[in-house]
Task: structure prediction
Amino acid sequence: MSFLSVRDLVVHFPTVDGVVKATEGLSYELERGKTLGIVGESGSGKSVSSSAILGLHRGSNAQVSGEILLDGVDLLKINDETIRRKRGREVSMIFQDPLSAMHPYYTVGNQIMEAYRVHHDVSQKQARTRTIEMLDRVGIPQPDRRVDDYPHQFSGGMRQRAMIAMALINDPGLLIADEPTTALDVTVQAQILDLLQDLQREFNSAIIIITHDLGVVAEMADDVLVMYAGRAVEYGPTREILVHPEMPYTWGLLSSVPDVLGDTDAKLIPIRGNPPSLLTPPPGCAFHPRCDHRDKVPGDLCRTTLPLLTPARAGGNHVKRCHLANPDEVYATEILPEIAPDLVEEQA
Amino acid sequence: MFAYVVRRAIAGMVLLVVMSFVTFMLFFASPIDPGRFACGKSCPPALIKQTDKALGFDKPWPVQWKDFAVGVVKGRHYPEDPALRKSAPELIARCPAPCLGYSKVNSATVTEELKDKIPVSFSIAIVALVLWIGGGVTLGAIAALTKGSVIDRGVVGMSLIFYSFPTFWIGLFLLEFVAIKWGLVAVPSYTPIADGGPWGWLSNLFLPALTLALFYMAGYVRMTRAFVLESMGEDYLRTAKAKGVVPHRILMKHTMRAALTPLVTMAGLDFAGLLGGAVITETVFNFNGLGKLAVDSIATFDLPTTIGLVLLLAAIVIIANIVVDILYAFIDPRVRVG
Result:
């Protein structure tokens, strides 16, 4: 059995206007030492489904069902106190905006020490020593001095490093990174990703990296899960999906990233339309109102029937949710020449 | 930090000088003849003239202001005119620094009058502050934590009801029923700690302080509720939760710290306002505080006392502002100045 196994995860939020279906039957597996990239637009359920692992929806009116097995324990079945003891110790999370994710009135050191002392019965002094070690490990210069600084005295990249130190101080088996580089500038992004990879090798932890940047996925992830309107629409090994994407939404994501295939002459083609409402998602395939290829499917199937997750190739672990019969051909003839003309020339 | 405090203190002094100037101008623009009121109702014109001369009311107002300012620093003696001192030695009054003037109506220096009343107003204000902060913050936090429930609505509703009742009504109600009819507590009369001990002091302050506290509490309940709710939605609380911090510690350490900071400003300024005397409450309970002194001095056209009071209140508000700003720098590391 995998280290982390999510099965049929459903997260619904009842509101006065109806039920917001933030996650609809999500399943994935993750091993220790491996990285899963979850990609999708804002509001596709990436963060909501990952927060469910930590039980962060408890105490709200969210309805969560399915199974989240971490080392064989179903995190949805254990009580509040048990999951609290796992938070930060077995599963940690780092957030998108490290400035708002840190308490402005407490020093960085105080907040990291708190994360350690919640789970370890140690003195203030021991916790401080450990905190300074961790700050040093994540590359903060003069950690014994910076430990007493407040978050606003740190730069954006430093704050994210401190957040990583806070998340990893208890050596958790699973780290959820919710858009860890979105609020940072590009050079700092690369440093933070490198740091995460180094630490992953060192601690052999599993990482879920939530992002809408396929560049991040290409660099970090072993597996990719593409989400749309609360569902997985394509899931498989990263190389497979970047080279042979089979779902028009994934094509759209690839078309709207400039450098994923390293081609500077490529066109940037945004996905038209807006993400669907999670309150009243479109019938059939949720992506069909924005899909350029729905007419290739006979019998209005896209509008009426929700496609199932089916293997892209017999025996492979690459699955997609699409009715298209010949996705590889459409991709090779219609999409690739637009977004990566060089690559097509090379192959020809 | 030190330079900042010095800068603020100097600015405060300048403001006080301007205040005293404006106050003087206002009173001289009014059609009051201060000498007539200082002298008494059936005072013959000659005596009014003498009073004017003794207290300096006969001089042009810029000169009076200068005398006043010098008196604050050095102290002064009435009357200054040596001829008058010789002819009417019964008029001689000493007013040591800081001299804020001499009240002929009360036959006392303004400084003495204020010195007598400050402890009364201060006592009421401090007890009221403790009551309304304690009650307001506790009830506000409870309301926020039970948002939307009967408790929440009850707490907010009750605080609004108390807010809507005029202070004199609540004061009279407490005095008439709690103290007199039901005899739950003795009818309050101000007792200094030196006379009645801490308990005697405190028990006599309870009703007037409660009257004020009930009024102020409404605002603090609603503010606390709003700030707690606001900070509960902050990202850093999610971080604390994701770290595995226990819920009550999240509330006490993370939520309340953020929620209470803005209340410090409010509380500081409200307290400063109250230090200047709670006019209605002091009148209802017949406490001889600054508020009552203000009403009396205005009613008797006691100009020196009025000017002294205005300046004292201005000074309190200015000092409170500086103190709140300094406090803020200690509470919120982001506003710490170099």
In short: Chain A touches chain B through 29 residues (CB under 8 Å). The CA atoms of residues 205 and 237 of chain A lie 18 Å apart. The radius of gyration of chain A is 21 Å.
